[in-house]
Amino acid sequence: MTAFGITPKSFKLLDELTANNNREWYHAHKEELREQLLDPFASILESASAKMKNAKRPFSGSKQTMFRLYRDTRFSNDKRPYKEHVGGLLTPSGNKKEDTALIYAHLASDGGFIASGFYRLETKDLNRIRDRMIEDAKTFQAITRKITKAGYHFAEIEPLKSMPRGYAQYADHEHATFLKMKSLIVSQNQSREAWIDGSVVKELVKLHKATVDLMLFGLEAIGKKS
């Protein structure tokens, strides 16, 4: 019994796509991929959205906030035509083009992961968040403690080795580690079973609840609070 249509066969399809990442195999299994992976994934995003609609800051996603399986290989040495995972967003606007706060769901052969926060912001926006970390250090500390207490951790995604330009004087600041981050992302691995039984929806809602203050902190810093 599955909640949204993700089954062991869905993961078998991802394994087969990895082993046969070519246009012939893809077109022969296109309908199967839609039924076993893409449509169920969209339903998961929609279900999570419905459970977040009354939150402090609702996030939403749907089929329109999913990423295509096609890869853009024009400027890449990796010429595989298709991604070997399914990915999609939940954002404050419900728009995939949202470029600030986001929740990301990643369904892969090993189960994948979910993540929340700010990913590779423009330097001007990132610096505004850094400035607020310094100016309102106590609030930021409370936010990070809440996230840690909830059992999550910040992912170290390409952190700077030294302090960013203009922040050298804050090398000993209590938030120096965060000031060196280019992305403020909280992530959690997911098992295959979480997708099959639908509990990934509950995990997305829990992640949103644990990180919404982080995202509000950042959105307010860059002037995008609605």
Give a structural overview.
The structure is a single chain. Helix content is 44%, strand content 12%. The protein is of the alpha+beta class and 226 residues long. It has a five-stranded antiparallel β-sheet, with helices on one face. Helix 3 crosses helix 8 and helix 4 crosses helix 5 (137-149). The termini are far apart. Pfam families: DUF2461. This is TIGR02453 family protein. InterPro entries: CHP02453, UCP028451.
Under CATH, the topology is which? BirA Bifunctional Protein, domain 2
Mean pLDDT: 94
Helix percent reads: 40-55%
CATH class call: Alpha Beta
- Sheet with most strands: strand arrangement: 1-2-3-5-4
* Helical run tally: 8
Strand residues, percent: 5-15%
Instruction: Name the structural class.
Output: alpha+beta
Unreliable residue stretches: none
Rg for CA atoms: 19 Å
The helix/strand order is HHHEEEHHEHEHH
Give the overall form. Answer: globular
| Total domains | 1
Oligomer designation: single chain
Main sheet: strands, sense, barrel: 5 strands, antiparallel
CATH-derived architecture: 2-Layer Sandwich
β-strand number: 5
End-to-end distance, in Å? 41 Å
